[in-house]
Amino acid sequence: MNFADQLAAATQSTGSVACVGLDPRKASLPKKIIPVSDSPDAWAAAYTLFCREIIDVVAGKVACVKPQSAFFEQLGPAGCVSLGEVISYARLKNVLVIVDGKRNDIGSTATAYADAYLGQQSPWGGDSLTVSPYLGRDSLEPFVEVCDQRDAGIFVLVKTSNPGGGLFQDRTTDGQTVYQSVAELVREMNEGRVGKCGYGPVGAVVGATYPQQLAEMRAAMPTSWILIPGFGAQGGGADDVKAGFDDQRLGAVVNSSRHIIFAHRRAEYADSMGEDRWQDAVEAATIEMNQQLSW
Ligand SMILES: O=c1ccn([C@@H]2O[C@H](COP(=O)(O)O)[C@@H](O)[C@H]2O)c(=O)[nH]1
């Protein structure tokens, strides 16, 4: 089944448009998870355990999960093993996986990235991957070919959630901004690939922190799923993300990482649940996010 249709099915079966970001950080892990040894192997095992427990809590309650490769890579080779284990576990639990790797390079190297993360023999086995558009159309094509072969998906960085993203993305050439040009390319690359749900495998990343641009991008890429980061810890709220959806409440998933996975540290859960019941805090924060997104 086309990746876009898989994502639509996941939002419908779970009743959720939330994506939980798996961004393990040493300094924020619950005490119970912190390893005795400070070695990369011990931390990697802790990251795997932490993420597996989160997946157990959120499976069936959210549309997808998004492991952030940077936090795993920080641990070196052992962290990469952990990332692979986390992706496999999510897929075992029937949770769709967006690998947040923001990869890309010249076409021939992009082919290697595409095969690595999404290909039929992919050792990582992600369902989808975030990619950078800045090397141009030929750098995106290998990913799109692999999407066609394996019913995988990509999310192209269009308008990122960070405060400084506008330095290049908002620059105007030939009467349109860079992010508008990227959106045009994303729309074109979905042509002929649209699934039953009305969307195709070439999606976009647009931050919750730019609600006006989110509305503009929804209209500019009518067949693209939008991955919306920036909800929660970065200040985006439910009203900000509404514009990313179509009339059927389809077409977007909203990511939250720190606010969900480290919910035991948030004031509202710290007293009632705290460290010992950190999984309950994750569950409560997930339910809260789903409620906020159920307009
Ligand atoms: O524009 C972007 C693209 C990606 N991200 C990633 O999403 C999560 C956000 O984490 P929070 O803890 O919910 O802030 C993180 O992995 C980022 O690298 C983004 O924030 N903005």
UniProtKB/TrEMBL annotation:
SUPFAM superfamilies in the cross-refs: Ribulose-phoshate binding barrel (SSF51366)
Domain annotation Orotidine 5'-phosphate decarboxylase: ranges: 17-273
Catalytic residues (positions): 102 (proton donor)
GO biological processes: 'de novo' pyrimidine nucleobase biosynthetic process; 'de novo' UMP biosynthetic process
Entry keywords, A to Z: Decarboxylase, Lyase, Pyrimidine biosynthesis
Pathway of action: Pyrimidine metabolism; UMP biosynthesis via de novo pathway; UMP from orotate: step 2/2
Keyword Lyase assigned: yes
Xref: SMART domains: OMPdecase (SM00934)
Family stated for the protein in its record: Belongs to the OMP decarboxylase family. Type 2 subfamily.
This protein's name: Orotidine 5'-phosphate decarboxylase
Organism per entry: Rubripirellula obstinata
